[in-house]
Amino acid sequence: MSETKSPLPRQVADAYVDELIALDPVTGTYLGVKESSSKLPDLSPAGQEALAALQRATLGRLAEAERRPGADSDIERRCARLLRERLTAELAVHEADEGLRTVGNLGTPAHSVREVFTVTPSQTDEDWAAIAERLRAVPAALTGYRESLALGLERKLYAAPRPTATFIEQLTEWSDTGEGHGWFEDFASAGPDALRAELDEAARGATDAVLELRDWMRDVYAPAIEGAPNTVGRERYARWARYFNGTDLDLDEAYAYGWSEYHRLLGEMKKEAEKILPGAATPWVALAHLDEHGRHIEGVDEVREWLQSLMDEAIEKLDGTHFELAEPVRKVESRIAPPGGAAAPYYTPPSEDFSRPGRTWLPTMGQNRFPVYDLVSTWYHEGVPGHHLQLAQWTYVAGNLSRYQATVGGVSANAEGWALYAERLMDELGFLTDPEQRLGYLDAQMMRAARVIVDIGMHLELEIPADSPFHPGERWTPELAQEFFGAHSSRPVDFVESELTRYLTIPGQAIGYKLGERAWLLGREKARERHGDAFDLKAWHMAALSQGSLGLDDLVDELSQL
C-alpha cells in the first residue's frame, strides 16, 4: 500500500468498527445498521477468539498509521490514544479467559441477546421479518454462550455463585412471564398478522433455548461452581478496573477517597434531613418518611410521562445557557424497562442517524407508586444533562471525531463520571433546592461513594477503617457489603440485593461513577484556573462533550486544555 493511501489512526479506528459489526450484529443494531437486524453474534470460544484476532490486527495497523504524516495532530492523536488503550484493555480481559465465566444479573452475553430486541427496528413488515430471523438465531447464540461457560468449567474458571443463582432466576422469568409463555413470545406478539405463525414459532424456539440454558445452568453449572469465591481478588479486580476506567488505579487510594466522600456526604445529608423530619436518627429515617409521606407519582404510564416532562424541562432551561444543543440532541424518550432485568434505571443512546432517539428506561419492579425524591436526580443522570447529552452529542459530532470514538470506544468511567457530574451540576445551578429532591440527590451521591467502598473493599478483602461507624477493624465480605449498602441507601431490599449482585458480576465498574466525577470536576477546575475570568462554562461543556471518549488517564489532561 502506498503512503498516500495508508490510513491515519481515525481511519484505522473506523475500519475496526466496520469489522466489529460484521462479527457482532448486536453492536450493529445499537449503531442503527439495518443489515444487523436479523443476526446474532457467535458467543462460543471461537467467536471470542475471532474478536480478539481483530483487535490484535487493529493494534498492528494502528502502530503503522501512527508513523504517517499528520498522525500527530490533536484529533488523530486523541483517537489513537483511545483505540490503543481500549483494545489493550479488552485483550487483557480476553487473554485472562474472563469471557469463559461471564455470568451474572446483567451484562452477560445472554442479556445482550435478549435486550437487543428492544432496540431492533419494528415499524414495518420487513423489520418484523428480520426480527423473526433474529429470533431463530437465539438458540445458536445461547448454545455458543453455553460452550464458553463449559470450557470455563473445564479450565476451573468459575463465575461467582451468587450472581449465578440470580441469573438462573432471571432465565426462569424470561421463559415464563406469568402468562404461560416467555418474554420472546410477548415481544413477538406485537408483530403483524401476516407474519404471525412465523414469529410465534421463532419466539417459541427462543424460549425453548432459554429454558435449555436455564436447566443446564441449574443442573450442571451451579453444582460445579458450588463453594467458589464470590469475589475476584486484587489481580482480577485490577484488570477489570482498567477495563472499565481506562486507567491503572491506585486501588488503596481510591478506597480511601470513597471513605472521604462518605463522611462529607453524610454531614450534608444530616443537614438536609433535619429540614424534612427534625430529630430523625439518620438521613435514611427521613427518606423512609418520604417513602410514605413525600410527593409521589401514581401509575406506570403517569411516571413515564412525568419523567419525559422532567427531561423536556431540563432541555428548555439548559439549552442556550449552559449548553448549546443541536436539534437532534434535543430529543430523548422516556420508556418503561422490560421485566426480568436489573433493578437500576438505564439509558440507551441514539442510532447513528438519530432515527432511533436516545431513551431512558425505568424498571418498575412491579411498583405502581414512585417517590419523586428518588427520581429527579436519577433522570438528570440518565437523561438530561447526563448520559443523553454526552452520548447523543458524541453521535452528532461523529464526523469530526471517528465513528469509533463516538460509539463503541466508550469508557464506562468517562460516561458514568459525566452523568454523576451532571447531577452535581444541577445542584450547583439551583435545580435541587427542594429539600426532598436535594436529599434524594445526596442519597444518590452517597450510593456512588458506597460503591467505591464496598466494591473495592469486598473484592480485595480490605479492612474497614477505625473511624468508620460500621464494623471498624473488620474485613469486608459480600454479606457485610450488603448490610452496609442497605444501611446507607434509601433503596428497597430487592434493589440493594440486585446492586450487590451487580458488583459481584462486573467488578470494577461501579467505582467509575465517583472516580469519573472526580476527573470531570478536576478537569473543569484546571480549565477555570487556566482561563481565569474569561472561563466560559457553556463553551467548556460543549467542547468537553464533543471530544469523544477518553480513559481517566487522559481525561483530566484533555479537559484542562479546553
UniProtKB/TrEMBL annotation:
Pfam families with a match to the protein in the record: DUF885
InterPro entries associated with the record: DUF885
Top-level taxonomic group: Bacteria
Protein name: DUF885 domain-containing protein
Organism: Streptomyces curacoi
